[in-house]
Automatic annotation (TrEMBL):
It catalyses: ATP + H2O = ADP + phosphate + H(+); Couples ATP hydrolysis with the unwinding of duplex DNA by translocating in the 3'-5' direction. Belongs to the helicase family. PriA subfamily. This is Replication restart protein PriA. It comes from Thermoanaerobacter kivui (Acetogenium kivui). The gene is priA. Zn(2+) 1 binds at C436, C439, C476, C479.
Amino acid sequence: MFAEVIVDIKSSNTDRVYTYKIPEGMKLEVGMRVSVPFKNRFIEGYVISITEQTSYPVDKIKDIHKILDNYSVFDEKMIELAKWMKDYYKCYFSEALQTIMPVGIKRGEKKVKIVRINISEIPDELCKRAPKQYEVLHYLQKRSPIRLSELVKILNIDYAIIKSLQKKGYIKVYEEEIHRYSVKDIERSQPLVLKEEQEKAVTEVKKSMEKDVFEKYLLFGVTGSGKTEVYLQLIDECIKSGKSAIVLVPEISLTPQTIERFVSRFGNKVAVIHSGLSPGERFDEWRKVKNGVVDVVVGVRNAVFAPFKNLGLIIIDEEHETTYKQSDMRPKYNAKEVAEKRCELENAVLVMASATPSLETYYKATKGEYKLLRLTKRINVSMPHIEVVNMSDELARGNTSIFSRKLFSYIKENLQKKEQTILFLNRRGYSSFVSCRDCGYVPKCPNCDISLTYHFEDKRLVCHYCGYQEAMRDTCPKCGSKRIRYLGIGTERVENDIKKFFPKARVLRMDVDTTKKKGSHEKIFYDFRSGKADILIGTQMISKGFDIPNVTLVGVILADITLNLPDFRSSERTFQLLTQVAGRAGRGEKPGRVVIQTYEEDHYSIIASKYQNYVRFYNEEIKYREIFRYPPFSHLMNIVISGEEEEEVKNIAANVYLMCQKIVNKLQNKSYNKILGPAPAPIRKINNRYRWQVILKSEDRNVLVDIAEKVQTMKYPKNIRISVDIDPLNI
Ligand code: ADP
Ligand code: ZN
Ligand code: ZN
């Protein structure tokens, strides 16, 4: 018998399948992790099939060295999924398998020794002859089984005593696997009586689950419309029919509050996977799934690989979130696409949900590719009252502070009423755009329609897509004002100003700086929820999952920061963010108020946010996408070239550009293809490495996949690194 093995080496022909002999007596199964001889060492490999025949000369085939775990890591469907991933994302087969495999697998299970009493009556003579042994048995009569370490500690005894008891057969000592992590069990919650729209959604999806067919839904429900209750009841149905469910949530909304909602319904049938877990803990959660100990997994991106044997349902909460895409490591997969493929392979049902679906998803829903389910009403409370303030007007009236007069007076009122306020400042990220303080004008690229980025070094404005450049202006071309300049504010500035104007206010800040320590995120959240502060200032970390009844005011310091990210999705991001943020106000009985400050009050993204009208936003945005041929009307691919010498990086980027052009010119089919660049990447230098990019747009994703393959297998100077991302989410 022979095994076909994918070996863990990274070189251009690693998709090659290697054949090994299965030694006599080795109980090898498909999907096992093995150690195999390769060149003159042993390396790790993954068995993808077992056959009786081979086309290789049998005497040249080496033996499998050993099996690494006593179970199979991948079932056939997971191997199938990995195959799909390697082709779809253009990575090595081994990389795809390793992505599916749990981190921490090499650590293995954690086992402890357990002692169990093996007799019902303690022999009398023991009392006198071996009082210590008697004491142990006496204790075990009350408490057995018990961990050996605990027993030894409680009774303060030697291991020798245990040994002799074991020898006599009075007790049994054995090993048991323990879990390093477990969710806290809490009081059980009962299913709620569903509202009409919820009921309709549950009934529809339930029908598909009963049919055992692959089906895709988009649950489009405003914030607070009870989507989570829909998930809970669908999962319940799924479990009742003997199947399992995966719920994906973005990292930032995997708050204690979210976890509580699932655990209170399903108790210890839930495993949780978040990035705060150690590799060992993650592995244990994976084992719980593998061994059928749990029926539900709630987790971040890679929970999509939870190894359920009988998967019935995958739910993707906040499907528009960018964290579902792995963009820092290969394969640059998107958990949404993987979920879709997995559901297809397993005949499961996929439910994507959002209050602000991504343009791509909603577009597919309008084309019938996803079935649309709608929840249009907030359950307990009304929508907050949203007001937009034009900051140019404030300036014209002599107010140079970062707070408009309206926001200022609302904060003051809230402090007096002892109600809480959230002040939201979208992360600056790499945003460094220029704007006119008088009319709101922002210089944009004539080719790509994205905001130009201000480069401090040479005082030029640069487009990160196509490389277009112009000199920084000193007057606004629209209104002639001289107040055209770089715009940027940080959370610290907001905090300082609040303290200056409201010295008595108790303020908390939540951003990357204040949440570095493990658990600090939770602490700030609980402190704020329990009323230990009046005002919370934060970045998008606070835009989700915060359900705090006493928050009645949300202020958005400057919507323009997201609106002018050098990214074709900047309007979409702004609408999503403003909607999420607005959803934080008025969760309780008291009505909520939202103040959005901006220099661009006429922008459709701001107007649609004001009226909380997604479809209105979608209808505008989709027109712009079509005109500039951005997704969903094309696929993008981003090739980033990095190295230590900027000139060299630039030259290679130019070569990559030419090569892409050559390939595109030779294409037979006349699909729309466009190559942009080379241009400096939005973050031009990271860790002393310069970065330039070439961006491709194509109607035909296969064209991009072909180019990706060629670009990745080309030879480059030693120091140069190439990173390719198909369908990138931040670009
Ligand atoms: P979403 O996930 O859409 O933002 P949630 O699931 O958080 O909305 O629901 C908002 C609130 O409404 C929650 O407090 C939830 O407990 C409550 N809720 C949801 N469904 C019902 C229902 N059918 N009856 C009563 N309350 C409900
Ligand atoms: Zn102007
Ligand atoms: Zn451009």
